[in-house]
Amino acid sequence: MDLKQTFRAGVCAIAASGLFVSPASAQAQPISLAPTSEWALESAPDHCRVSRMFGEGDTSTTLSLDKGLGARELNLSLVSPIVDDPFSPWAWYEFGPAERPNNAKLVLTKTPDGKPLATIYGAAFAPLIEEEPGTFRRDPLSQERFAAIETLSLKLVARHPFFLEVGPMDAPIASLDACMSEKYEQYLVEHELYTVHAEPTASPGTWITSSDYPKQLLMNGASALIEFALLVDDKGTPNFCAINPSGRPQKFDDAICSVLLERARFSPALDKAGKPVPDVWESRIRFQIAK
């Protein structure tokens, strides 16, 4: 599998009846937060990040966009009191004014110093395009579309929607892509010299259970063989998920990545000096109804 070509969002929206309040139905007065810093680029062994701060005091918010080795999509995270203990983890997010809204499940945790942290794994600037029933493709943004972005809005169930005045995103995304491209080329060279590769600490068969089968797909009798890859950091934790594209129902991809990122753990890879390093682990899983 060509990771550089096939990485795409593994965690997208898994819509369920009654979980969402649509953007059009949100009646609460929105909160708009202006930037209080410039975009900052950070580089880590397995990913690059651009981040910016917004608001002050009770609304102080940090937005971060992370991209991992070879990944096409992003992890989007918000450190903010606004995302503390929401009524539901499901939310709408939208890069305005022109891009269409996405829905996603927030992964809600805390930072080491106790601040509320919400993360969307496999976030995208535009939703996937459904070419035909059950078959999706990415909607890659041109430089002009990135430059036209003005805001990022987030709408939580039973909460005031809020807008971050992010401004044009062409420059921050270009710097993120350049950082990640250089890091990925270096990884391809160094990967050949690893003395130990990332290995699961428990049987991968224990990561997925019958209850993880998407309920709607189970009712429809759908099945699929999914080839996937996890980007494992130097501590053995997967933080990006890749799915090999195919014509199968998109919700299979959603289900597998969300579960794997939560449950899979590894012993990290080691370089020739014995130092823990990031690695990519690939495998496959079959969703099938027993007959």
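The record above closes out task 2.4. Task 2.5 opens with a second protein, given below.
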Amino acid sequence: MRNVFLLLCMITLFSSCLSGVSGKKANNQTPSTKDDFKVIGYWPGSNKKIDTGSIKQLDQIIYSFLHLKGTKLQVSPEDAVHLEYLVGLKKINPELEVLISLGGWGGCETCSDVFSTESGRMDFAKSVKNIMEKYDAQGIDLDWEYPAIRGYEGHAFKPEDRENFTLLIQDLRNVLGPEAVISFAAGSFKDYLEKSVDWAEVMPLVDHVNLMTYDMFNGGSSTTGHHTSLYPNEYQKNSAHFTINYLDSLGVPKEKMVLGAAFYARVWEEVNDSMNGLYQVGKFKESILYKDIEAYKKNHSGFEYFYDSVAQAPYLYNASEKLFATYDDSSSITSKTKYALDHNLGGIMFWQLSGDNTDGLLDIIDEVIIEHNK
């Protein structure tokens, strides 16, 4: 009996160690309840206050973005105002986690160089800890676009970034401790998935990965397509489903994957009317927030709505002006949220909160979760 007791103690100790590796809980376990399902919104800062309903619907809000100054993460006076505002929202939602974020598109010019040295990584990690303590933030989301592969024009990258990203995560976890939330935003395209991250080494150390399952067709694309497709179709392999299946094949726990949604549209011009503008040559024109789509349609009379039932993705085409738009709407957001819940993913996130409107996409997410939990 004594031997059995000792064995049970060893098992309990081992389980506790596993839990400490990746944050507040053993995230390699399948969520037992939908209370573990997180709704995460990126927020780039605004003078407009976030409505109370949205605050209550969020589990995490990520302030986007802070940037490097030398080897340290820098908080500008404007950033400080926004962070203090976000932390104050906990009076409305005490369970809300506030995260800071590094980088963003065009915001990580020196990341490759800074994170290539141990001193650079440690300076950064310590500065993150200081910011978290000063502003009562719960963690950090890394949005380095991209380690080891070409990202923003002119930004340095090298093959060694992949290993250095792992070392950066290790240093952050060691400095911030097991209770801090550490996540990162990941590209959903083949080059990133294969070359930027050592998934086996990184995932045990982070709470989750925010999958940017959008911008599959973007400002650099000379043809149109679904920029935030849930499923592949005969013309487009890249999709949220493809990304999740690929990571699953590598052993990444599904409960650490957070599905991405887009609260904005991408618009192309000079698009021919074949297939109602879908998968046609075009010239990228602009991005517009979801809340501005209706006004945009009124200003460009002639848009027709279409829905790809295979890809679960909406799009608009204006034949007279040869304009094509791809985005998420209430139907695709419903499908994405159901998908994330049914596949036991860790949650759903979106770029970005200021793009939503009253009775908008975040409300749809909340309604689907409530219905699922009945």
